Amino acid sequence: MTTPKNPKSEEGCPAEGLLKQLSGKWKPQIFRLALESPLRFNSLLRQIQGSNRQSLSVALKELESEGLLEKTVIQLKPLHIEYVLSERGKSLVAVFRQLEGLL
Fold first, then answer.
1. Digit-coded pLDDT (tens) for 9-21
2. Has domain 22-101 been given CATH number 1.10.10.10?
3. What is the pTM for the complete model shown?
4. Residues 17, 68: contact at Cβ < 8 Å?
């Protein structure tokens, strides 16, 4: 006997999408640090203990592709890149703070 599929269960809980976007190596830490100020890659390497270049790079790219961070190239010398919360990322700050409060 097979169980009929419920289309609602396939969509999942609305909070599930946010949790998936913020899950993964270093993503919650990066998001939390982005709340405070613009982020630079080397600064993140120093601030997040145990991180490495590859995993940090992957996490930043994923957060950017999910629309939570925006990447900005600063044309001043020395040339550098900063990551800031996007409008979508800013809209999730209250939810993120509530999640932090539960711990």
1. 446 676 777 778 7
2. yes
3. 0.78
4. no
